[in-house]
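Friendly challenge for the regulars: who can give me the structure tokens for this chain first? No prize, just bragging rights.
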Amino acid sequence: MASLQESLNKFKQQQEKCQSTLTSVAAARAATSKASHSHKVVPVSTSSSSSRAPAAVKFSNDTERLQHINTIRKSPVGAQIKRVIDLLLETRQALTPEQINDNCYVDVNANKAVFDSLRNNHKVNYDGKRFSYKSKHDLKDKKQLLDLVRKFPEGIAIVDLKDAYPSVMDDLQALKSSGQIWLLSNLDSQEDIAYPNDPKVPLIKVDDDLKLLFRGIELPRDMVDIEKDLQKNGMKPATNTARRKAMAQMHGINHSKPKPKKKREISKRTKLTNAHLPELFQNLNVPDT
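First reply, four minutes later:
Bragging rights claimed.
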């Protein structure tokens, strides 16, 4: 009985010891947690902290646009130059490299080859800060256009005028309608030429007999023969039929006339579907068999 009581007492002491150990462990954890919260670093306020913090940089999620920009900047120099020149021609404004980059995504400052090529291009004017489009003839309006055409009595190509200013083609048609210029096509190069119609030049009256003599001259049927006759008389033909025919043969184009189909002759063996109308066949020559 005494031994049993002793065992119980030992068990109670072990339980009390374990309980005290658990209590001390819990107290130590609580103290550690409290210390960590009490020692949290607090930023010291300075005079600069009173100013507003810069806004966070937000990166664009427009992947397709970014890929497009990357493709442009990795394209050949010539392709980038064309984009810039097209932009300058369309806007007709002097643009900085930054404005060019914003409008057509060509980074002129970051690409030395593009910058040098653009600066030395005959279609571009560079004043040290801005790029602008430079046409062959510096024209502003219809009056200046007419004055320029009158300086070229032998004619001036439309291709050299069409980029002078935005409405130049409309002004050319207006000058043609008013009879101040002529617009003729060069049959050899297929280019339009503007000729001045000088009102100071008097109209030349041609005698009727001379007109009849001119119209009575029989010309060769083949244009090649006409061109040869012109060259024999020291004149340069406006066309080059021989070269045009050679180019057509190189590209497999056949200008020869198709052979006419042979008409079928009617014989006694021909089946006539309109036999009930004999008057239709009264004048037909049917060969004898």
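The longest strand covers residues 181-186. Confidence is low (pLDDT under 50) at residues 35-51. Your move, everyone else.
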